[in-house]
Write a structure and sequence with these properties.
7 strands, globular
Length: 107
Amino acid sequence: FPVTITDQETLESFFADIRSKKISFTAMMPMSGESVVEIQHFIPESFHTDISLYAVTGEKVATIFSGIAPTELTKIQHPLTNLPKGVYYCELRTGAFRKTIPIVITQ
């Protein structure tokens, strides 16, 4: 059963950033047990954006999104079925902004 790193405080911060029109990014595993990572981001201006998934070794294991991100709240589901159990890092880069969130796959 996949475990989410995102907690209530992180979600509250995410939505507070959206309300203040700041760049927001969250990634979590759904409680349903599906082998997907659910990513939500809000980027208030058009920038080239990259969302990537990295192994704990630093190796890039997936490009989830690369392009001009829409200037609205966006939700992406990316399958993780080909990845073994372990810790991974989901990273968003847009303009000068960079944020990395740990993801734990337990099944």
